[in-house]
Fold this protein.
Amino acid sequence: MKKLVYTSLFIFLFLNTNVTAQYIPKNISMQDMKKAEHWADKTYKKLSQDEKLGQLFIVALYTNRGESEIDKVRSIVSNDKIGGLILMQDDAAREINLVNEFQEKSKVPLMIGMDAEWGVYQRIPAAHKYPWAMTLGAIQDKNLIEQMAAKIAEDCHGMGINWDFAPVVDVNTNPNNPIIGNRSFGSEVNNVVSSALSYSNGLQDNNILAAIKHFPGHGDTNTDSHLDLPVVSHNLERLNSVEIAPFKALMDKGIGGVMVAHLYVPALESGKGIPASVSKNIVTGLLKDKLGYKGLIITDALNMGAVANKYKPGELDAMAFKAGNDIMLFSQGVAEGKKLIQKAIDNGEIPQSRVEESVKKILLTKYFLGLNEYQPKNPENINSDLNNDSHKTLVQNLYSNAITLLKNERNQLPLNGRTVYYVPLEEALYQTFADRLGTNIIIKKAGEIDTIPANSTVIVGLHKDNSTAYKPYKISEASKKTLADLTKNQKVILSVFGSPYALRDIDLSKVPAVLVSYENNDDSMTATADALNGKTIIHGRLPVLVNEGLKAGMGIDLNPSGVIR
């Protein structure tokens, strides 16, 4: 695995100059470092105070909410001199044209961000979807994650995006988590760290900024912070060993951004109900001072219910800046926020040096990302550029490497061309899987299982809805009964096209073969059919603790000849 390596030159520069950016491109010369600093200093001095404050804000740009919404953003870019945009749904070409327009009109180039955890598909439906983080967490060759992130970086460049707000480094220890779940690499700190580092390197080695999130850790929550304020009630020992641990491990790896969550963590913040994103104890005291993070610190989206329901727009932005954040994401009140920050400076609550620190950090990062020489992007053919055979080949390889074999009693796999019955269960599509399995497959619906001859090989597919990464997985009682009935006189191969958490309360004692494919889409189904037919090696590992019988790290290697390792 490639790593971001800092030579004594860079250490010297950090110790002897006012460089504060965490992200520095590889192989940069001392001369280029000086140019970067010079550009940041010169640009900063040319800005009015109002323009400096504008750099602290990123607002959302949607293309599916009509021209009036776009005009509002146009006005904010022009009048409030903001620092950047976060691209939302849903037209890539339209977004590129607008980014080109706004970049041309901006005195300081805009930082363009996107939540692209599983690629720009997360916001652009015409793009190709990459696997969710939990799927990636099952992959043992982390170089594949780096390759994926490099391809995401390529897609981002095509759209004029400079910052992918990813990867998630929350350790998902709560199967009922309503907002993280599949977005996490898993329940084990070491796997989360190694996966996230590969993802971050793949982005940043290709000049797209990464942001590890959601500090100080959103993995054990029962509440969706888009709706209300989650509480993480663990003690300091637990927080340091699990929730905060990935952030600590990644702090000195050159990752350019940390996103702070809207969470209430009593062990870290004594003020009742104060979210981490506006807590000076957490942002400044812990993240900046104790952990020593020097990169860009950005809030989670400020329109989320956890904070938007509690504080007024503008007021919230000012609180977040006072807490120590450099950038307020998805601001709902730029003009008012700027006024309140300036008022706090005038009153002596915030020193002007805080503005200088944050703005110069932002400017330096923009220079390192090449924004000082911005070139307009061409929207022609963007949809095909974001979704072609190169994406499909890579993505199917990722799903193939993630497939996890948990049981294979009596060598049920590989199928080796024998005739099998296939019973699809749950709510999602399954035809791609059935077609790929081949001509020796006889499909039977749940109500037809009595017609299957005794002692047959039967594949049971749990095909869960794949439309969102956030939905906790529950298997219906009807599906559980069908599975139990089949195990009485059939040799069952259970294939889970969804989160492994689906297996939490399923009795697997009489199921001889169990396979987890993590997602239900064409790429995953194709990869799974090939694995069952012995065309590819199976060597994924369970990334999460499911129950006492299914622990993280479990998995059986099976090569195409059927030899188990």
Remarks:
- DSSP finds 20 helices and 14 strands in the chain.
- Residues 8-373 form a domain with the TIM Barrel fold (CATH 3.20.20.300).
- The chain has two domains: 8-373, 403-532.
